[in-house]
């Protein structure tokens, strides 16, 4: 009986603590700040140590969860990749991106390789008409010569 009362008291304290913290919790998007709709087809450039290459992307974002994902294709290198991460809208309706980019392509031996950019060195911004992603490197994975200092610029 005493054990049940202590358990109920712990639950009550946990709920009370959670409710007290709510005002301090910061949601990804502040009140009245809505993420831009980026779902759709995009085209632009992939600028990196590989040069400036044309690219196309298909992006999807969930404006309520703050997530973004998609696929892209880079012409010239016959490479493809993915984007996944979070969009966060702050003051002045600036929407920032934090996430991960991957890249895949055939090596000289004909095998497919795949590398990712670390979350810590991948960022950018997004609006309804323009998306910019920056990745310092694609150090994770098995690609022998991944691009460095990548800047993806996409427009509708």
Q: Could you explain the architecture of this structure?
A:
The protein is mainly β and 156 residues long. It has one domain (40-155): Porin (Beta Barrel), CATH 2.40.160. Helices cover 13% and strands 51% of the residues. It is built from one helix and ten strands, in the order αββββββββββ. It has one helix at residues 2-21; strands at 40-48, 51-62, 67-74, 79-89, 95-106, 112-116, 122-126, 130-137, 140-141, 148-155. Strands 1-2-3-4-5-7-8-10 form an eight-stranded antiparallel β-barrel. The protein is elongated, with a radius of gyration of 21 Å. Residues 5-31 have low confidence and may be disordered.
- Give the SSE string: HEEEEEEEEEE
Largest sheet: 8 strands, antiparallel, barrel
Q: Report how far apart the termini are.
A: 65 Å
Number of strands: 10
CATH structural fold name: Porin
Structural class: mainly beta
User: Would you tell me the overall average pLDDT?
Assistant: 83
């Amino acid at each position: 009986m005493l054990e049940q009362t202590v358990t109920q008291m712990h639950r009550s304290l946990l709920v009370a603590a959670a409710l007290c913290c709510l005002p301090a919790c910061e949601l990804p998007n502040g009140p009245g700040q809505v993420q831009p709709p980026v779902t759709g087809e995009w085209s632009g450039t992939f600028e990196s140590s590989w040069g400036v290459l044309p690219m196309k992307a298909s992006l999807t974002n969930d404006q309520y969860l703050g997530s973004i994902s998609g696929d892209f294709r880079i012409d010239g290198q016959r490479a493809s990749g993915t984007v996944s991460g979070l969009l966060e809208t702050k003051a002045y309706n600036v929407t920032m991106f934090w996430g991960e980019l991957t890249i895949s392509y055939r090596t000289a031996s004909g095998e497919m390789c795949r590398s990712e950019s670390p979350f810590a060195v991948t960022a950018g911004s997004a609006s309804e008409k323009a998306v910019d992603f920056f990745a310092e490197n694609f150090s994770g994975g098995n690609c022998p010569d991944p691009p460095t200092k990548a800047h993806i610029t996409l427009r509708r």
